[in-house]
Amino acid sequence: MSTLLGYLFLALAAIPFIYYGLVLYSSFRFFQQAPGPTQSGQPFSPPVSNLKPIRGLDPDAYDNLASFCRQDYGEYEIVFCIGDADDPALPVIERLIADFPECQIRVLIGSGRNAANDKVSKLVRLVNEARYETVVISDSDVRVQPDYLRTVVAPLANPRVGAVTCFYVPIHETTLVHNLQSAGMLSDFYAGILVAWQLDGIKFTLGPTIATSRTRLDGFGGYQAIENRPADDLLVGRLIADQGYEVELLPYSVSTVADYQTFRELFHKRLRWIVVMRHMRPWGHLGLVFTHGLPWCLAAIAVLPSVPIAVSYLGTYFLFRSAITWMIGGRGLKQSIPWKTLALIPAWDAMAFMIWIISFGRKSIRWRGNDYDIRNGVLVPLAPPVQQ
Question: How far apart are CA 309 and CA 174, in angstroms?
Fold first, then answer.
């Protein structure tokens, strides 16, 4: 390769650094300007239905679910929906009812529907049977602080806000796999979310927390309209935004307990997500090529191998990625960022790039023990689905 073409390639390989700079700018602006969790809006505390579709037992299930019973909030109910009376979560829920008699807790058994996405089928019934107009939907592996409901509901006082969502951070990071996921979450996943906020606003919600109203859900046909589609959490935010409402992302985080223990499980979890994103946003998925800095740096070194190029490209890459992780995780979400998390960033980036490549050849996903094709944005079970 000629020297001129080599230098042109070096310029191309530097494009991810522009993206990283945008991540830092977006992250700084978000956490600098966004109101704190106790300052967003005027006091607003309507009665709330806290809706939780459940399948089986997550790690630390009792502690996770009990945190929703300790809310510093006025009137609220917690409504669970499980697949059948044999679900191992039922005894845990019955224990909650006994331990927190002051809480309004109800259990619905079965969704009464037959759909590809049984979690969403449960949400159809949960929304239909909720007592209150304001609903907060959360995953079963989420653990929250007593100010949770007060914080996520408050922005709905603004009639322009149709939905509220927030970040989530893992707890009990005891293994290399858990720390690898944390490195990816802070440096990669949230980085993309904050750039989206900067460029186009938030037009999606995150599954661990969706606060909205039954009216806003009815505006796009309710959960029954998406019970055969993947990524229901992202879709809810998009469909509410399509109605002209704002989706507010709070500078606030809940905790999640990891439901994966091995590298293989983490790999397939990430692969499922990226394949779904390819089907939902094909051009945006293709554009991710310029967010993968590590392979571009290695390619630059291969094209014009020299010590100065290797040091400058790899050094700049690692400085940017470390700064992003600190800005989002440390400064923004107030998380401890140990050196081992920073050291795992290149490993995460290598895995993420490999998964991105693999995703172009995949049209099926595996989720909750079931295999699905994605055809025209619809989940098609490859076998009779296991009930969730």
Answer: 37
